[in-house]
Amino acid sequence: MPMPINQGISQYVRRKRISFAMPGHKGKNSTGIRDFFALDVTELDDTDNLLNPTSYIKESQNKLAEIYGTSSSYYLLGGSTCGIYAMISLAVSEGDKIIVDRFCHKSVICAIILCGARPVYVMPGYNYRFGFTGGMGRADIELAIMQNPDAKAVIITSPTYYGTVSDIKSISKTVHDAGMLMLVDEAHGAHLHLSPLLPDSAVRSGADMVVQSVHKTLGSLSGGALLHINTPIDEATVLNTLSMYQTSSPSYACLCALEAAVYDGLRLGDNYKKIIDEVDKQRKILNKQGKVYWIGEEMVGNCNVAGIDKTRIVINFSSLPVTGFGAAKLLQSKYNIEVEMADENNIVCIVTPYNKISDIRTLARAVSDITKNMSTSLPRTATDDYPVPHIAMTPRQAHFSPTEAVDMIDSVGRVCGAAVCKYPPGIPLILPGEKIRAEHLRVITASADKGITITGISAGGKITVVK
Question: pLDDT for 421-439, tens place per residue?
Fold first, then answer.
């Protein structure tokens, strides 16, 4: 009997593309694990329990905390989403205010819906030259705290999908001075502690709780993540909260792979110098040609950017008659290169220690070849696709209210009932509880016309609104 999923994925793997996409292991098993199915046991007397560890899982998590320099750390098999749910649940209760980076991942809003918290949104810096967000500004967070002194916590995203890092150290001090908890979605930064050539991790920059996806930038299987705690919360409370969001039947084989990926990262830490040296070299070559712009440390100091993760390659095509989407398709079809993401002006590529150094050279040569006969013009000016939100009710109120699906043209002025997101990176254009505006429809239509996946809009072009 045919197995469509197995056949489809096997067909993809046989193409043997150079991967600059997740997961970070790039299809290479460097963990030393061979008898994978034999390791997939269950909770028995001598296999310990991830949700209530007392033996070697507890020992490994204690070592994990030593590696990352935290008070305590926990393995997650439900991705950063699971960790974000737990982190927010540990920080706020129903009715509490939480100051939120408006360009957060959808999972942050889902967690707020589950907890019944009241979000106070803060917009990050936006770089109109390149068309993506920078970092969160300390002054903006400080203003939100002054206006909402009763908030219990602040949560921001750093690094962003584009590799921009906020000044976590200074923001954490502001947050702590106000008696609040500092939470960081560091899903894209599980590797930052491995090299002094990378930006400082939020784990060691004053954050109280941090979530990281090991599968994004290191070598675990998809869904492998970590929750780090640097504030006095007893283990029983953490485990009880995690048990609400982790499966009660975790895969021990995946857990073994996650542990191995963390240790393998330590072994590969020295590789980052070679990676960054090659990135710098190829960036200078491409930028000297004057066709595209490979973004680098010149971003620091602009749009609240405190650091750049150079392993997150962002190449801007805005001066050329090709979009980031078009460039990504050419790289895939002509050069067998898979990028992580594309938008109107950029491609985003993730380099990990599991890439070959030659992969970076191949990418640079391919981009040079694509663009060599193209004429340049003034850069396309990017627009901020995320209108300032107008909050009519909390996300939880909207989620649990009676809703209906209406044509988009009839949704203007109505309250959104379900998140509308661009994928990737999964940042909501409209959140539950926000009023829908004409600007939202313009962005949705323009994005769909460019081939961007929009979730929250039905095939018939309808959007969910509160009755």
Answer: 887 677 788 999 999 999 9
pLDDT on residue 451: 76
* 465 DSSP β-pair partners: 404, 416
Q: What pLDDT is attached to residue 424?
A: 66
Residue 294 and residue 144 in contact, taking contact as beta carbons nearer than 8 Å = no
Three-state secondary structure call for residue 455? strand
Q: Which residues pair with 185 in a beta bridge?
A: 157, 211
The whole-number pLDDT of residue 360 equals: 98
What is the DSSP secondary structure assignment for residue 125, as one 8-state letter? P
At 149-203, the pLDDT tens digits run 999 999 999 999 999 999 999 999 999 999 999 999 999 999 999 999 999 999 9
Which ranges of 164-234 would DSSP assign to H, the alpha helix? 168-177, 214-217
Taking a C-beta distance cutoff of 8 angstroms, is the pair 35, 21 a contact? no
Closest CA to 229 of 202, 248, 250: 202
- Count of CB atoms situated within 10 Å of the CB of 223: 21
**Which DSSP symbol is given to 52?**
S
pLDDT of residue 423: 77
Evaluate the omega torsion of the peptide bond into residue 389 and state whether it is cis, within 30 degrees of 0: no
- Quick one: DSSP state of residue 408? G
How far is Cα 53 from Cα 55, in angstroms, rounded to an integer? 6
User: Cβ atoms within 10 A of the Cβ of 428, count?
Assistant: 25
What pLDDT score does 261 carry? 96
- pLDDT of amino acid 383: 64
pLDDT of residue 241: 97
Alpha carbon distance 318, 17 (integer Å): 26
Kindly provide the b/e burial profile for residues 342-377, where b requires at least 16 CB atoms within 10 angstroms of the residue's own CB.
Answer: bbbbbbbbbbbbbbeeebbebbbebbeebbeeeeee
The dihedral built from the CA positions of residue 238, 242, 244 and 245, taken in this order, carries a sign that is positive
Q: Which residues of the chain have pLDDT under 70?
A: 382-385, 424
CA atoms within 13 A on the CB side of 259: 17
Which token pair is 361?
A: 């050279």
Question: CA-based Rg of the chain, rounded to a whole angstrom?
Answer: 22
C-alpha pair distances (Å), 107 with each of 95, 111, 114, 155, 185: 19, 6, 10, 12, 10
Q: 301, 192 in Cβ contact below 8 A? A: no
**SS3 category, 148:** coil
- Mark out the alpha helices in 195-270 (DSSP H runs): 214-217, 235-245, 252-267
Rounded distance between C-alpha atoms, residue 434 and residue 315, angstroms: 33
